[in-house]
């Protein structure tokens, strides 16, 4: 059952200014697995995610989706992105479109679906994130948690092979975080393949099948969620304790 | 909660077709509304002739009495053109030609009949020529001698009651004769004219233009001794003037060019009679109720209104003087005029321009015309400017480095060079001519496009249904690199295919340099070289670009990467942004030159108006021909019979005025440069995350731009764009320098007539304010209508 969906090998990213944000990261994500990436600020987590769906171009390394290398100049970048869902820290809903249209836009313009078919799928996914009651609202009239759930639904609608979450709860008030985490947990239970960058250590421990700890552009520790209880490296111990202090 | 969702009217829910109808009817309403307050009335009135038979010819004697002759020898006369009485006639033959001189009146007609009334008597005497053949023209010489001409070249002179036969043996028909003193002219078939200098005794042929041999000259007239006119039944007009002091009028005849779209020399109407009223003024008339007046010797011929049905047959015109005269025709009809038959403009009264209300009444039509003209160029200018602005803004904001452009279009470029062009030239060779080669290449392109589309769609749809990846065909890497390198060589040195010979960058560059050299400028003068030889300048830029690209392709190593040099510095040749550079050049140029100069350059220099008018006229001529009975027009609810009028109306509306076209372009091009910066600012204000979000669901860059970024950016920039549009309205007043009659120029015209400076400019100001203020209100309304909750801070707490 452990078919590799996403495979990253020796990924490096050097930004134009000379910042070496990622210095050779490798990991695989299996079908139905949820992987959490944790690490301190500036350790290159977002950079890794963005390299995966080529919002930024990696300087070196190989990214494979379903066994096919996707970071070549000749791969169809739009097709690749439509197969990888992405959920942003700041939601990034299309502000001028209502909730329903936010979700159907990709289905209509990328998948070429009719409005009726797209609406049907939109209703399904909005049901999954429990947002059916605000289907005609503009994003500006939603709460943060609601917006993030709509953003998750937007990613789900495209039936992605993997969804990438970049700190989906960091911009939310504490009381709104719960509903979003609940939704992601639901997806994990359904067997969605996911890569989640998060600062919610407890959530990572409960939901993720595997934890990747990154620091200074490198994977420092990797293993089942139990590594959070007893980290092997000093750096991860420090990181975890600094987080616990905050709480 | 959200009350906005239940709008009574929502533009976005109106179907596209209805939107088009609403917009186009608004445009038609604004632009095609008839001009108010003007009308024309016929200056001809119907007189009571008291008889029913056809009237055939008329003449006025020197006392101002008008004589009319007709069927069965009828003779009528009237001193005032309104009340008519009949005279006792000595004949029952039809009389169809007449003349008078010094109160001698003569008429002639069928079977050689001539009737004559001398100056002293009031009775008519009848004479018949010995051969009794039909007479077609009659005239009186300065000596009071009657000369009659007719069928088969007959020329008869009636002197003291005796007939003198001066026929000289030509067997064509002579249709008309006229005398000025002893000089006479005869209008004949086959486009020939004969003249006499001795009162009609001897005749010789005069010079008429070539190519008239199929025309029948049916009427000829002197105007005093200094102008002669003749007409043919096909509607041509001939003119003879005195040339120097030696050649008298009537020797050399020229065709008059009649002002019309295709510079015709024919009226394209049948005409049968003419009356000359002055050296350059004459009236012509024809069978189907056609009366037209020319005041400039025939260049412009204005048909006039008549108070009779269109199929009314006019037989002759006779004028007492330059203004008063009659038209006669079938069934005893007589029309008379005191205005030379010129249509009367109604609604123009003599007004006192020192009264403000009368001044307003006088000038409002002009202002209204000016306002409409202004709105017309402003409307089109805004559209053009917006289009240019959005395009440029996208060029400037797009990640259009050379790398991205080439990466994205590499497949297409390779296809073009390695499939399309070879198929084109080889196919052309095999099939014998190039156009079939092109056809062949296009067919192959179409097929491969359809196949790949179908394949792609199926693959994507299947992959989506089964939730698995799709895959496409790719050229293997090593071939790809070689293809690209060869492409580089051909861009650099050109294409060898003999039929598809294309000059490469080096050749173009070299050519342009030598072109510049041949301009023979020195030093700093070379900054004007682009003006001196625009083609060479274009080739110069293109040459540089092609050389750059060629070198880049030749050194291609499979990756679009920076070149690293051993000295430690890096160069990123793929990082230049050609589209952005072009857009910047454009905006810089238009924002750093005065608008008034741009107006003059566009109109007088580039002559954009003239070129567009030419192209548009060609296009509409095609359409016009097509629309003759085309089903297409019926299908779209237009009667085929209506279609030509609609087409020619549209054509007239858009293409009739060169200054109008030039003004739109000058305004649009200029405004585009400014709108570009505004829109660019708004695009930059949209968080970059929106672009990332759009791209992360698989939309292309342009797709995200159109679906996500622009809809938000345009909403943001409505207020500054509104400013820009108001500016455009105000700038439109500069269109007066290219003689476009918009509001300001109308103001100048009004002042030229009325000398009311304060009132005129005041009213012009108010008119401008009304336009700009309405525009501002519309934009405010639009801003409100399109406001999205949560987008931008506007009108909030
Ligand atoms: N566009 C950019 N240009 C230059 N440097 C960048 C850019 N984006 C990020 N960096 C740098 O790269 C490093 C990694 O950034 P990244 O955003 O991947 O960190 P992160 O792990 O996601 O941090 P956080 O938890 O704060 O989101 C940082 O030092 C950052 O300053
Ligand atoms: Mg981050």
Write a structural description:
The complex is a heterodimer of chains A (247) and B (797). Chain A is of the alpha/beta class and 247 residues long. Helix content of chain A is 36%, strand content 25%. Chain A contains 8 helices and 10 strands. In chain A, the strands form 2 sheets. Chain A has a 6-stranded mixed beta sheet with strand order 6-7-8-3-9-10, sandwiched between helices. A 4-stranded antiparallel beta sheet of chain A has the order 2-1-4-5, with helices on one face. In chain A, α3 packs across α4, α3 runs parallel beside α5 and α5 runs parallel beside α6. The longest helix of chain B has 42 residues, at 356-397. Chain B has a 4-stranded antiparallel beta sheet, with no helix packed on it. A 4-stranded antiparallel beta sheet of chain B has the order 3-4-5-6, with no helix packed on it. A 4-stranded antiparallel beta sheet of chain B has the order 7-8-9-10, with no helix packed on it. With 797 residues, chain B is of the alpha+beta class. In chain B, α2 packs antiparallel against α9, α3 packs across α4 and α14 (658-685) packs antiparallel against α17. The chains are: A alpha/beta (247), B alpha+beta (797). Chain A binds chain B through residues 53, 55, 65-66, 68, 73-74, 76, 78-79, 81-86, 88, 90, 92-96, 105-106, 109-112, 136-141, 154-155, 158-159, 161, and chain B through 1-2, 5, 407, 410, 457, 460-461, 464, 467-472, 474, 480, 559-560, 687, 689-690, 692-700, 703, 707-708, 711-712, 715, 788-791. The structure holds adenosine-5'-triphosphate and magnesium ion.
